[in-house]
Specification:
84% helix; 67 residues; mainly alpha
């Protein structure tokens, strides 16, 4: 049973790889990006950036070093 299973995958491997390559070749990346654009924009609107600057970060490091 195990040998049959291994043989089946050996035979199917090249065919599956050919299908994968064809799907990659036919992929429309611009269409895919357009599909995700709405979700990306929603994430940008809902996430609040932390107020920070290089000066604030530097002061945090100096405070840690002083301890």
């Amino acid at each position: 049973m195990m040998r049959r299973w291994v043989q089946t995958w050996k035979e199917a491997g090249p065919e599956l790889e050919a299908i994968r390559r064809e799907e990659i070749r036919k992929a429309d990346n611009l269409e895919d990006l357009a599909v995700f654009e709405g979700a990306f924009n929603q994430a940008l609107r809902s996430l609040r950036p932390e107020p920070s600057s290089g000066m604030i970060e530097m002061q945090k490091w100096f405070a840690k070093l002083a301890r």
